[in-house]
Design goal:
Blueprint (H helix, E strand, L loop, with lengths): L1 E4 L12 H7 L3 E4 L2 E4 L6 E5 L10 H16 L2 E6 L4 H13 L4 E5 L4 H10 L5 E4 L8 E6 L1 H16 L12 E6 L4 H17 L4 E6 L6 H13 L2 E7 L4 H11 L2 E6 L10 E7 L1 H13 L6 E5 L6 E3 L6 H16 L8 H4 L3
Parallel strand pairs: 4-5, 4-6, 6-7, 7-8, 8-14, 9-10, 9-11, 11-12, 12-13
Antiparallel strand pairs: 1-5, 2-3, 13-15
Helix pairs in contact: 2-9, 3-4, 5-6, 5-10, 7-8
Length: about 350
């Protein structure tokens, strides 16, 4: 339940008087419930990260890079909070909004949708942004991604690799897998895309999937990945946040390929991360902040995909022929030649 102010490394204990302080000291920022004086210069941005906080080497860390970029290039100052439970989202958003100190408050992750809906209604003059879901409110800019496009690219990469006998960590079983975090429309879209992408390459490839039930449980992620590997999967994609670190660990221990998510996770399992399903959350945070700095904030839906450069993959350990094929597939998705199914059931019939 910690928050940290930009440039400081100390942590603060949440105290009951924080709510009272928000009523009597309007020009302060809260870090874990302890009041700190607002920096007078530059624009002030607050970020509430997704569960698990920083150190996931994935979604939250990518968002933090965008925040740091905005500090460096735009001159903003920032505060952030690292909730460990869904119940904390609304509390942190309320604390930040109550100060009146922030030009923009950003929610990271679809799990914050309900909390932001409530808080944005309570503070109609406060500007908010949310990444990975839609909150329909006149003071909220929502940024979402075409998740099925990324999933399709990862499924295609996995299938092309498992079929390639020259790839050293593959086996003859033609089975590939994806481990999702929490079952939800967002993760389901990734899974559906993965299944469809694998079947697009070759229907003899068997894509399987499972959910951790959490974005913050690497041990459970590893357990699920080991089960998949023991069942014959030689490429496993993680779409599970911090839980996905366990997936990468399992791949390294068991001598198969893993695929990262959101950020380049090649360093987590050297020699085993085939590629990464990139979601450029850092760019999204920077863009949302830049629009406020430039007085161009607009509430409403912003949908980003392959065509916008917001999703993609890196070459990593992919064979050159696979990279060439994936670039062709990306062009066909952008042009509309490939139409990706919306549901897992439809993907299984693709």
């Amino acid at each position: 339940m910690d928050t940290r102010r930009c440039g400081r490394v100390s942590r603060y204990v949440v105290v009951a008087v924080a709510v009272l302080l928000t009523l009597i000291v309007p020009a302060v920022a809260f870090a874990g419930g302890a009041a700190q004086q607002r920096q007078p210069e530059g624009m002030q941005i607050a970020v509430v990260f997704g569960r698990g906080g920083l150190g996931d080497q994935s979604f939250n860390d990518a968002a933090y890079r965008g925040l740091q970029q905005a500090e460096s290039e735009l001159g903003i100052a920032y505060d952030y909070a690292e909730p460990q439970a869904v119940a904390e989202f609304e509390n942190f958003l309320n604390q930040f909004a109550s100060t009146g100190a922030y030009d923009l408050i950003i929610s990271i992750g679809f799990e914050q949708g309900d909390a932001l809906s409530a808080v944005s209604a309570a503070f109609p003059d406060q500007r908010f942004a949310i990444i990975d879901t839609v909150v329909e409110a006149p003071n909220v800019a929502s940024f979402v991604y075409a998740e099925k496009e990324r999933g399709f690219m990862m499924g295609a990469a996995a299938a092309l690799t498992t079929l390639d006998a020259d790839m050293p960590l593959t086996n003859p079983q033609r089975r590939v897998s994806v481990v999702g975090g929490i079952q939800s429309p967002l993760i389901d879209a990734n899974v559906a895309g993965f299944i469809a992408g694998a079947r697009y390459i070759d229907r003899s490839v068997e894509p399987t999937f499972a959910y951790v039930g959490s974005f913050g449980d690497p041990a459970r992620g590893k357990e699920i990945a080991i089960s998949m590997i023991e069942d014959g999967s030689d490429v496993v994609w993680q779409a599970a946040g911090r839980s996905g670190l366990g997936v990468l660990d399992a791949a390294m221990e068991h001598g198969v390929y893993a695929m990262g998510a959101d950020s380049d996770q090649s360093d987590v399992a050297p020699g085993h991360v085939l590629t990464n399903g990139l979601k450029l959350v850092d760019e999204t945070v920077f863009i949302a902040t830049q629009r406020v700095v430039n007085n161009e904030f607009e509430p409403g839906l912003n949908r980003l995909g392959l065509a916008d450069g917001a999703l993609g993959f890196n070459e990593g350990l992919l064979a050159p022929a696979t990279v060439e094929r994936l670039n062709d597939i990306r062009a066909k998705i952008i042009s509309g030649e490939i139409e990706i199914p919306d549901s897992i059931a439809a993907a299984q019939e693709f």
